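Slide 14.
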Amino acid sequence: MRTGKDLCLIGERGAGKSFVARHFARATGYAPVETVFIYSDMTARDLLQRRTTGEDKETLWQPTPLTRAAVSGRLCVLDGIQRLPTGAISALLRLVEDRELTLFDGTRYVRPERYAAMRTELGMSEEELTAKQIFPVHPGFRILALATPPTGEAPWLTNEMLHLFHFFRLSIDLTSEEGREHSTALLQAVVPGLPAEVPHALATFAAAMGNMEADQSNTVSASVSLRLMLRAARRAAIYPTDFYEIVAAGIM
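Slide 15: predicted structure.
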């Protein structure tokens, strides 16, 4: 994040992307974050500025979490970036690459260097720029996008998208010895009050279910994601009980 480049975290559903995003924000001092949940028919207006109607039927414009983050210098999490339509990508492109934005009500946000140049080279005061609806994008503003891997049916990772972010792949093989060790340590670290035997038992159970999923003769979906393991662990911390009851209540 110190390089100024925005990030995209790619992982399967339930791999722990949202969990990683929350802890990343806390570790880097960006908590709380602004979150945008992306949907397939989202428009540039939905992404940047929403239009509403006031009590006197007048048109009002409301900032979205993305715009609020750009102004306040927060981290904006774009959850489900693989669903973003092409038209909305074009609107996002200018904000990511140039740190500039023109909203539907005429408000302009420019990168801090350009804003400073307007004041020094053009001799414009902050009040004059405000009157013209020109404001700086906060230098601390960053984006963290979350996505599932591209597929043949949804090849969202286009050349245009590749220029927007630094990409990182989140992958944990729960069936491997290393995966079991990591998931056990993770549950112990992030779920307070968890009975000592539960993390290893959950990791072993998830590995067994993963091996069952990999069996081509098995026709039933049996995988257990990290998200489900965390859900079961949190329940075990609140309601210590028999392990099989934990699994049934938290996973099944």
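Speaker note: The chain is about 45% helix and 15% strand.
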